[in-house]
Amino acid sequence: MDDILLLDAVERYLNGEMGPEEREYFENLRKSTPEVDQLVVEHNMFLHQMDAYVAHTNIKHTLHNVHTYLLERGDLNEGGEVPTRGKLIQFWNKYKRVTAIAASVGGVIALFISGLAVYFSSAVNDPKLQQLGKDLEEVKKSQQYQGSIINEVKSKIPLNARLLSGGSGFLIDTKGYIITNAHVLRGTGAIVINSKGKEFKSSIVHIDEQKDLAILKITDEEYSPAKSIPYSIQKSNADLGEEIFTLGYPRNEIVYGMGYLSAKSGFNGDSLSYQIQISANPGNSGAPVFNQNGDVIGILSTRQAQADGVAFAVKSRNIYTMVNDLKKNDTAFEKLKLPTRSTLKGEDRKAQINRVEDYVYYVKAYGK
Amino acid sequence: MKGDTNEQALLKGLAHNDSKAIETIYKENFNMVQSFILNNNGSYDEARDIFQEAMIALYEKAQTESFVLTCQIKTYIYSICRRLWLKRLQQLGRYTTQVDSIEETVAVAEDMEAHEKRNVEFAIMDRALNSLGEPCKSLLEGYYLKKMDMNALAREFGYTNADNAKNQKYKCLMRLKKLFFSQYNIGE
Predict the structure, then answer these.
(1) Do B19 and A62 touch (CB under 8 A)?
(2) Residue A134's pLDDT band (boundaries 50, 70, 90)?
(3) What ipTM was predicted for this assembly?
């Protein structure tokens, strides 16, 4: 209540509504009580603020009315021709606007189309990138070259099936689960061949186009599960400059390559992959990328077409996310257990390769 | 200002929110600003917004006691609009090519700053008023904006007498002040 009385007094004082006696009394009160003085100053400022606000609202209102009025009278023009000086300028203005509209429409369409393209194709379909799966022709050739062996040992590729693509892959579970790139598996089925040249039938159990990863399972009776996998699959990110090596099948024979991790992101900043410096060739797709300790840090997938030795590997933690998703959705994968302990640490490279090569497979995909 | 007395009179009219004066300034300047905005990637609506904002800036300037306009109204409005539009384009990321210059411009940076500061203050007041709720908002608007007298307000809002309405008004005002200053003092 006191506050209200005081506020009333302040407002009457500021509006000059006080009688001379009251005014003098109030001025004395101001002098003796800093709080009251402060209230007067503050309230004065606030009232000014309110006045300005009111004036602002009013002028806005007037401007709006004037605008509508002039528009109705035809003094202003909003739409149709813009009155300007000279026909040439007018023409130029018109032309400019049309160009701007055309350009933006073109831009929107271009964006839309590229958006569609990105949406419908996997990320690795960039012309600047080259997938390292082998295409039909190359596989065909190696098939011919292999002809003699294949004739002797009957190939496990079904009759009438055509080889479509090839690449590498490696075991992630002793029960015969093999991981490779999605783009390696172009057909309807696949066989895998170990480093000794022995073929096994396998089936495609999962394909994740977005991560460019796929899982195969060896279904062959002749396959005897490995005792344990010597390498582990790393969960964390690898460090820049880390020395890496890979084993894959750019030829019919297993090939070793080494390099280093050159960037923590892949092509165009893709955070799912690393950039690595290594010489990679078609057929290397799906090959494991190991660090010095024998932990798998990635899966070699693409290389940059115009740059020498620049390749990209899908980060290994994507294997975990994919497998965890699979486990959630499909009970068949419940027993899939990724290797988490490497026994290769401290061994020299030749020994490491010797122990790892049996777990890296040559993947051949076929279709009708 | 050296300009003719006609312009002086117009500005005086503007300062008093006189619609005839505003109409005249509007007619003489709007088309220039509209073509400028349209030629620089703007729309009709944007042209209207920008022009009206420049008019408000001119209005604010005309109201200050120390007011001097050192150039023609046309030049001043054009300069303000140009600045406002450049700023808008930058905010929208539409800043592509050099904005066409059709006339010389005057330095308006200081005025713009003052104008922007005012805009911020008005926005705070706006927010404070709108978060006040009814009937406080209407009561205060009635008294301070529409300048209605206490008896009329008491009748309109159904208070038994003017004193009760006045009490309520002060309560509302205290809340509004609190809301306003809490934002105002945080800094704009």
Answers:
(1) yes
(2) low
(3) 0.80
> Would you say A300 and A132 are in contact if contact means Cβ atoms under 8 Å apart?
yes
What number of C-beta contacts closer than 8 Å exist between A and B? 92
Show residues of chain B in contact with A70, CB under 8 Å.
23, 26-27, 30
Q: Return the CATH class of domain B5-107.
A: mainly alpha
Chain A residue with minimal CA distance to B115? A56
CB-nearest partner of B125 from A49, A63, A69: A49
User: Would an 8 Å CB–CB cutoff place B122 in contact with chain A?
Assistant: yes
- Distance from CA of residue A144 to its chain's centroid? 40
Angle at A288 between CA A287 and CA A293, to 5 degrees: 155
Name the residue facing B26 among A66, A77, A96 (closest C-beta): A66
CA-closest candidate to residue A295, choices A238, A368, A350, A225 = A238
pTM: 0.44
Sign, CA torsion A151/A153/A159/A162: negative
Residue A78: closest C-alpha in chain B? B44
**Rg of chain B taking only CA atoms, in angstroms:** 21
Q: Per residue, what are the HEC states of A44-70?
A: HHHHHHHHHHHHHHHHHHHHHHHHHHH
Cβ B17–A49 below 8 Å, yes or no?
no
At the topology level, CATH places domain A130-368 in: Thrombin, subunit H (2.40.10)
Domain locations along chain B: 5-107, 111-184
| Ramachandran quadrant class, B124 (left: phi over 0; alpha: psi -120 to 50; beta: rest) | alpha
User: Which among A140-149, B54-63, B93-102 has the top mean pLDDT?
Assistant: B54-63
CA distance B2 to chain A (A): 26
C-alpha pair distances (Å), A32 with each of A21, A26, A92, B100: 17, 10, 72, 61
* Fold of domain B111-184: Arc Repressor Mutant, subunit A (1.10.10)
Q: How confident is the model at residue A93 (pLDDT cuts 50, 70, 90)?
A: low
| pLDDT at position B128 over 70 | yes
Distance (Å, rounded) from C-alpha A69 to C-alpha A64? 9
Query: For position A149, what pLDDT does the model report?
Result: 42
Using only C-alpha atoms, chain A has a radius of gyration, in whole angstroms, of 37
Q: Give the pLDDT score at A180.
A: 93
The Cα–Cα gap between A344 and A294 comes to 5
Q: Which residue of B has its CA nearest to A75?
A: B27
Residues of B in contact with A64 (CB under 8 A): 52
The closest alpha carbon to A121, from A183, A204, A190, belongs to: A183
* Separation between Cα atoms, residue A268 and residue A125, nearest integer Å: 13
Range scoring the smallest mean pLDDT among A86-95, A104-113, A129-138, A288-297: A86-95
Report the pLDDT value the prediction gives residue A82, as an integer from 0 to 100. Answer: 43
The reply to whether B178 touches chain A by the CB within 8 Å rule is: no
Check residue A86 and give its pLDDT: 47
8 A C-beta contact, residue A246 and residue A278: yes
